[in-house]
Specification:
This protein is an alpha/beta fold. Helix content is about 40%, strand content about 15%. The protein folds into two domains: about 110 residues, Aspartate Aminotransferase, domain 1 (Alpha-Beta Complex); about 220 residues, Aspartate Aminotransferase, domain 2 (3-Layer(aba) Sandwich), CATH 3.40.640.
Length: about 350
């Protein structure tokens, strides 16, 4: 049974013209986020004072993400992409350090480490990730939910294995934050692109860092926006960087963060637990329906459903107004708070021909 909060949000904030099951690629923007972006763009076009954007909105988005992630805002840095956040973590490792990651992990999670050329990369199947952690492992880098097929990692097992061997952890929550509850405090680093299940405009991304990890992370983006006193640090070298994770901030795209502030407030109103129950329920209905028409999905309870070998059906589904994606040969459908049972049934009808 859908919650009244989800019903209300769907009715007031979303008006998709398609059967949109492609949140794993890009989430729909709520009306309130669209309006915030338009208002800032209008101010910029009119030369209104402050039309460039507001740091208050940036910090409000920071606080909104912190609330969803279960950490204090002081633990959150903002930026424009997961790859840039991962680059900071990669820069913190000494030459020769071992980075352990799942085979087939999303490129942005592993490439910043791999391109250094002086780190030891080791890849293992996702199901054996916890068992593969060893005393020489410096960092375990992986996604909570795999982009290619929606599989959910054994978060508890990986965290316990890393702790047992003294390895740090970096969790990518880009395919999970917004539908799967996130405890960012359990990880040394988390990185999250905002434009998927968080429903933020593209160009918003969040990094969480434990207090201990903050001591070793380099301040590569040490511009005035990362200063303790922003507006009195605009000329000459910054004299004092922010004392918390804000010192790792990148200069942000204000349009994206004015929208992100609104999207994150919407998620807080609905509650991730409610979204989890709703989205995984729809995914289970889709898996059952797929089996009834002869298609076997990747098993699990994820809100993301992948069907191996069926990626070639994506263009036909799009032509019929059903938006999904093709990844690694899989047909991938993702369910979120704005989806309904009717969306599930429509996708199944098209697949059944």
């Amino acid at each position: 049974m859908e919650t009244s909060a989800i019903d209300q949000v769907r009715a007031t904030e979303f008006a998709s013209g398609t059967t949109y099951l492609n949140t794993s690629t890009c989430g729909l923007l709520p009306r309130r986020a669209v309006e915030a972006v338009k208002a800032l763009a209008d101010d910029g076009g009119a030369g209104v004072r402050g039309g460039a954007g507001s740091f208050e909105s940036v910090d409000s988005a920071r606080a909104g993400f912190a609330g969803l992630a279960g950490v204090a805002p002081a633990r959150v840095a903002v930026g424009g992409s997961v790859a840039a956040h991962v680059g900071l973590v990669a820069a913190s490792l000494p030459a020769g350090a071992e980075v352990l990651a799942p085979t087939g992990e999303f490129s942005s999670v592993v490439s910043p480490f791999a391109v250094r050329g002086d780190l030891r990369m080791r890849y293992v199947p996702l199901t054996g990730l916890a068992e593969a952690v060893r005393p020489g492992t410096a960092l375990v880098a992986f996604s909570a939910v795999q982009s290619a097929d929606g599989r959910v990692a054994d978060l508890v097992a990986v965290r316990e294995a890393a702790a047992a061997h003294g390895a740090r952890t970096m969790l990518d929550a880009s395919q999970s934050a917004g539908w799967l509850p996130l405890d960012a405090g359990a990880w040394d680093y988390t990185v999250t692109g905002g434009y998927k299940f968080l429903m933020c405009p593209r160009g918003s991304s969040f990094l969480t860092v434990t207090e201990a990890a903050q001591e070793t992370l380099p301040t590569l983006y040490a511009g005035w926006v990362a200063a303790e006193d922003r507006w009195n640090s605009t000329y000459g070298p910054v004299e004092k960087l922010a004392v918390d994770a804000r010192r790792f901030d990148e200069p942000v795209a204000f349009l994206a963060y004015h929208g992100a502030e609104q999207s994150l407030s919407l998620l807080a109103e609905v509650g991730v637990d409610s979204v989890y129950a709703h989205a995984t329920g729809l995914a289970a209905r889709f898996r059952k329906g797929l089996a009834s028409i002869g298609h076997e999905a990747v098993p699990g309870t994820s809100a993301i459903v992948a069907v191996p070998g069926l990626g070639g059906r994506e263009p036909g589904l799009a032509a019929a107004g059903v938006m999904v994606s093709a990844r690694a040969g899989n047909l991938r459908a993702a369910f979120h708070l704005y989806n309904t049972e009717a969306d599930v049934d429509r996708a199944l009808d098209v697949l059944a021909g």
